[in-house]
Specification:
This protein is α/β, with parallel strands linked by helices and about 230 residues long. Helix content is about 35%, strand content about 10%. It is built from seven helices and five strands. It has a five-stranded parallel beta sheet, sandwiched between helices.
């Protein structure tokens, strides 16, 4: 008799990184429960991409939860009064206006609740601290601290085997992430990474996320399947 595969919760945004993380988790043999959020983001088309990625990536289940983070404002990704800056306008110092306050903390908290309910001990997130926009909740220190919290604040953490917060991309360049995904069969044409896409899902080509994505494909030596509205 073959044992049932272990379950894992995978945070799935529909972007390049989370698609790769789903492929990694599946390659490790996990039954993946993909979790996405409608949090008032202006790039809502990412949820359509998440649905495509979940199906193509073999997720056993895909849930989209609504969270009112966007009602708080404070980010160019959730507040229409704040423009999404072009990559050329990003500064090398400071946290950019595309940072969404406490987003990964909230997302991981929901994933933790889902993991405890579904009996999953591993939670995967596509956080990256190399080629990224400078968000504090993408750093290794944050991932480690949240894992500590997870095992202090839950019944499974106190009475059971506890949780692991898995961030396999944390120290990888965007090119390394893409090459890893290609080896695992990820179809990146299904994903979108843009902060400011058109209503029909075309990437703007000028935001920081588009720049990081395009540069990653270029350095990886892999053809970029993205259709951009503007020249980069």
């Amino acid at each position: 008799m073959v044992d049932k595969p272990d379950k894992a919760v995978v945070l799935l945004s529909g972007g390049l990184d989370s698609a790769t993380v789903l492929a990694i988790a599946r390659n490790e043999g996990y039954q993946c429960l993909a979790l996405s959020f409608n949090y008032g983001q202006r790039h809502l088309v990412e949820l359509e991409a998440a649905g495509r990625v979940a199906i193509a990536g073999g997720a056993a289940e895909h849930r989209i939860l609504s969270l009112p983070i966007g009602e708080l404002g404070g980010s160019a990704l959730t507040d229409d009064t704040i423009d999404v800056p072009k990559a050329s306008e990003f500064e090398d110092t400071g946290i950019p206006v595309t940072y969404v306050p406490a987003r990964n903390t909230v997302f991981l908290s929901m994933a933790l609740a889902m993991a405890e309910i579904y009996g999953a001990r591993n939670i995967f997130i596509g956080a990256n601290a190399v080629d990224y926009s400078g968000y504090p909740d993408c750093r290794p220190e944050f991932i480690s601290a949240f894992e500590t919290l997870a095992n202090l604040a839950t019944r499974e953490g106190v009475e059971g085997e506890g949780f692991r917060i898995r961030a396999p991309l944390i120290a990888m360049s965007k090119a390394d992430i893409i090459n890893t995904g290609v080896k695992l069969g990820v179809d990146y044409s299904l994903t979108i990474s843009c902060y400011n896409p058109s209503a029909d899902g075309l990437a703007c080509g000028v935001c920081d996320s588009c720049r990081l994505r395009a540069d990653g494909f270029n350095l990886a030596g892999v053809e970029d399947p993205t259709i951009y509205r503007s020249a980069r």
